[in-house]
């Protein structure tokens, strides 16, 4: 599929003290100064089911859903159930940004809704994960809280990755929520949808998914 979409080192300690793990109060424009870049993508769904059993696309909206007993994307793999868009934007350096609007259906929990794949100490640089507490809580993995009351509404998400300096910046509804170490250099790419599950059914809907390159981070 094809979609047309619209090194200066900084002290990690200073970043963490100033921003990481706490919410900034001013609204930002995360894509200001960035270049929108076309991309291609693949859809990954359980290998033993038709793609339409766990994914649909209509009116510019991607819909992903999984159940606990689902398989992963290819026969013999040992990871969890998934229905995801895998952006073909492999990179190892530079500045890259994911943007999109997500609707998280209530009851989804224990589920990664967006990820930057690739790391030297872990498989991923970051995952945004939905938990069931407080009307749906988005966290960085099981750690820092990025948003509560997240179920059943459209949420604007921007994730900037400065691969040269090993930092990731997460914005929710144009507010910088924190920046984090990216867990080491590797081949990275963006994914969104649903991956892993601890409830009976998880579903997200994504629209306006865009890819940006080479702009300022953490503004």
How would you describe what is shown here?
One of its GO terms (biological process) is carbohydrate metabolic process. This protein is mainly beta and 219 residues long. The strands form two sheets. The chain has an eight-stranded antiparallel sheet with strand order 1-3-6-15-8-9-10-11, with no helix packed on it. A hairpin with a 5-residue loop joins β9 and β10. The radius of gyration is 16 Å and the shape is globular. The N terminus is likely disordered.
Instruction: Give the CATH topology.
Output: Jelly Rolls
What's the main sheet like? 8 strands, antiparallel
Q: Order of strands across the widest beta sheet? A: 1-3-6-15-8-9-10-11
CATH first level: Mainly Beta
Which segments are poorly predicted (pLDDT under 50) over 5 or more consecutive residues?
1-25
**Tally of separate domains:** 1
Helix content: under 10%
Number of helices: 1
State the order of secondary-structure elements, H for helix, E for strand.
EHEEEEEEEEEEEEEEE
Strand-residue proportion:
over 45%
Q: How large is the radius of gyration?
A: 16 Å
Coarse shape: globular
What's the architecture in CATH terms?
Sandwich
What is the mean predicted local confidence, pLDDT? 90
Helix/strand-derived category reads: mainly beta
Note the gap between the termini.
32 Å
How many beta-strand runs?
16
Protein name: Alginate lyase 2 domain-containing protein
Region (Disordered): 16-35
GO molecular function: hydrolase activity, hydrolyzing O-glycosyl compounds
Pfam families: Alginate_lyase2
């Amino acid at each position: 599929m094809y979609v047309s979409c619209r090194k200066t080192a900084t002290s990690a300690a200073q970043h963490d003290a100033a921003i990481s793990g706490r919410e900034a109060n001013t609204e930002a424009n995360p894509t200001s100064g960035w270049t929108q870049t076309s991309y291609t993508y693949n859809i990954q769904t359980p290998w033993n089911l038709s793609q339409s059993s766990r994914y649909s696309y209509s009116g510019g909206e991607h819909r992903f859903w999984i159940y606990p007993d689902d398989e992963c994307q290819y026969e013999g793999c040992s990871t969890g159930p998934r229905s995801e868009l895998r952006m073909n934007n492999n990179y190892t350096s530079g500045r890259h940004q994911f943007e999109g609007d997500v609707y998280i259906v209530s009851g989804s929990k224990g589920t990664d809704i967006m990820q930057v794949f690739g790391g030297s100490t872990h498989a991923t640089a970051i995952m945004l994960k939905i938990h069931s507490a407080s009307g749906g809580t988005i966290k960085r993995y099981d750690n820092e809280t990025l948003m509560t009351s997240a179920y059943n509404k459209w949420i604007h998400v921007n994730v900037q990755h400065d691969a040269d300096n090993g930092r990731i910046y997460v914005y929710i509804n144009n507010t910088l929520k924190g920046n984090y170490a990216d867990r080491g250099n590797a081949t990275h790419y963006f994914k969104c949808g649903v991956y892993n599950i601890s409830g009976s059914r998880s579903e997200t809907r994504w629209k306006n998914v865009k890819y940006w390159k080479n702009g300022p981070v953490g503004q």
